[in-house]
């Protein structure tokens, strides 16, 4: 009888190892966040509000839990600089030759949505904005998808079943139907 129990345990472990990704997700979503002190990246930005289309390149530097710097360029010419700290956002618009500062509280009031430094940093780094709790998970090709609704916003998170990282985020304002899509699939590890 003892040998039979061990055989059943080995078979169960073997089957669970074959489907390891999905079994782990069914019990609770585990997403690997990036962990480091400093981060440097280059990103492509596309903006389209129906009236204006802008494509640009952004160089990004982050000191985790402290500050985010962005330099935005079009055709090799810097058009704007952005700095985000724990309290405020600072924008230097080189095209319009002006400088503006807005506190994150002011921005939250303007957007009618709670914006804080951690939310902005999570979007820039490709970490989950809001931790997984009890939302239903769906298998969607190479992704594990879960959706969250917070206030007037629907968050669709796509986690790579192989990478265990957020690979795509789509946020929709449920009242205006405006959407923001962030694609993290082209992240490339450099050294460690």
Helical percent range? Answer: 10-25%
Mean pLDDT, to the nearest integer, reads: 78
Name the shape in a single word: globular
- Total helix count? 4
**Strand fraction:** 35-45%
Termini Cα gap? 49 Å
Could you list the spans in which at least 5 consecutive residues all have pLDDT below 50? 1-26
Radius of gyration: 21 Å
Order of helices and strands: HHEEEEEEHHEEEEE
Assembly level: single chain
Order of strands across the main sheet: 1-2-3-4-5-6
Report the biggest beta sheet as strand number plus sense, adding barrel if it closes: 6 strands, antiparallel
Determine the structural class based on helices, strands and strand pairing.
alpha+beta
Quantity of strands, as a count: 11
List its salient traits.
globular; disordered N terminus; single chain; 4 helices; six-stranded antiparallel β-sheet; alpha+beta; 192 residues
């Amino acid at each position: 009888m003892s040998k039979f129990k061990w055989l059943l345990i080995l078979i169960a472990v073997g089957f669970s190892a074959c489907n390891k990704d999905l079994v782990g997700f069914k019990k609770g979503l585990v997403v690997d966040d990036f962990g480091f002190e400093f981060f440097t990246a280059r990103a492509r930005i596309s903006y389209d509000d129906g009236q204006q289309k802008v494509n640009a390149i952004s160089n990004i530097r982050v000191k985790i839990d402290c500050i985010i710097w962005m330099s935005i360029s079009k055709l090799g010419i810097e058009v704007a600089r952005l700095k985000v700290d724990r309290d405020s956002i600072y924008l230097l618009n080189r095209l319009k030759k002006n400088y503006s500062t807005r506190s994150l509280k002011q921005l939250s009031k303007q957007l009618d949505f709670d914006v804080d430094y951690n939310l902005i940093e999570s979007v820039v780094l490709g970490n989950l904005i809001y931790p997984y709790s009890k939302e239903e998970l769906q298998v969607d090709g190479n992704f594990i998808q879960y959706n969250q609704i917070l206030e007037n916003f629907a968050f669709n998170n796509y986690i790579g079943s192989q990478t265990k990282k957020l690979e795509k985020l789509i946020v929709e304002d449920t009242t205006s139907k405006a959407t923001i899509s962030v694609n993290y699939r082209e992240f490339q590890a450099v050294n460690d």
